[in-house]
Amino acid sequence: MSLPVLLVVSPLRWSLSGRRPQHLLARLAERWQVLFVETPQHDRGAPRLDVAEVAPHLTVLTPRTPLRATGFHDSQHGPLQRLLRQHIDARRLHVAVAWLCTPMALPLANALGADCLVYDCMEELSPADGACPQLQARDLALMRQAALVLTAGPSQFNVRRHLHDNIHCLPSAVDPGHFSPATLDIRGPLAQQARTLQSALPRARLGFAGVIDERLDMGLIAALAERHPAWSIIMAGPVTGLDPARLPQRPNIHWLGSQSYDLLPHLLAGWDLALMPFALNAPTRFTSPTQTLEFMAAGLPVVSTALHDVQALYFPAVTIASSQGFVRACEAVLAEGTLARCARLAEMARRVARHSWTGTADTVHRLLAQALAGAHEPTPAGPAERWRVTADRPLPAAPSVARA
């Protein structure tokens, strides 16, 4: 019996390993025939479709067109529709579900005749954030047409919850086995690479791993390094949208650049504390960082600024600090006693167990099957449904150290 076809249209490339779509779709490919359509790449010559079978039942389709327009611009839809229709028809496939990670792809999905649409809201769109009118219009149209809407965090869910009767919060999850120190090969090449990068750095080592962009509070990072020159502040990740020359430069701040998803657990194993020094500004209003659970799965205590989604999902496993109290919060966590550390580890383990990618993929599969069948009542199991019941709860109070 053939698997139902799940066509996913994403602005993210499949090669960006460790992201939410890759985690979910690799697991959904056990029950769906997944076609992952990447954003078009500019290339000379006639339009063509690069086809890569990256796993059983999981195909990555990369359109190449001579058009200069980026993303899923309307001018790309004609060539893309022809390329995808040829691929689908040649294999006698029928698209059961079109999963859109960008509303700009709505005309393309409609042209392909999917049985139902799923809208995975990867970012919140508003005029205040500079979203163009066409993008906003497509967003509203997709909210109307979609049989199922998913949001990446509770803050976004709260904004959209009254706009659709089958909307679910689907926070980021984690692969616990990938990050657990107990599973690492400490004699392997990845462990050696991590040692080369950071073993000479003095302890305590406090680190951040992720995209380094305008969402981070650079002043906070500089203040941490200045207050404790003996600490090593490790920043691992690609610098995006910022001038690298303008990043804080101190002898104890170490910018490691982009590192692979496979290397990341080995880097974390050499840290004493994980940092989440996000600025509280418009770009972070709906931020729900994927690395929170990864840090906890690695057994690292986490100190974060007061992002809404981090407080709602992970407090008290994560220490929440104001920008003024951030340095003191780090000091307190590093100095905590054995009993406090054991209690923290137990709370982190509970959060990690509750938010695995495998369990989240099971939830998504049920929701997709219900949407395809025309059912709109959620099932009672799984993290998405649990949040739907508890989304009205008030945010917990931050610990006293956060207000110091």
Provide structural commentary.
The chain is an alpha/beta fold and 404 residues long. The protein is 37% helix and 18% strand. It has 15 helices and 15 strands. It has helices spanning 20-28, 74-90, 106-112, 133-145, 154-160, 176-179, 189-198, 218-227, 264-268, 291-297, 308-314, 326-335, 338-354, 357-373, 383-390; strands at 5-9, 33-37, 41-42, 48-55, 58-65, 95-100, 116-121, 148-151, 167-169, 205-209, 232-236, 253-257, 273-276, 302-305, 319-321. Strands 1, 2, 3, 4, 5, 6, 7, 8 and 9 form a nine-stranded mixed β-sheet that branches. It has a six-stranded parallel β-sheet with strand order 12-11-10-13-14-15, with helices on both faces. Helix 8 (218-227) links the parallel strand 10 (205-209) and strand 11 (232-236). Helix 2 runs parallel beside helix 3. The chain is globular. Residues 375-404 have low confidence and may be disordered.
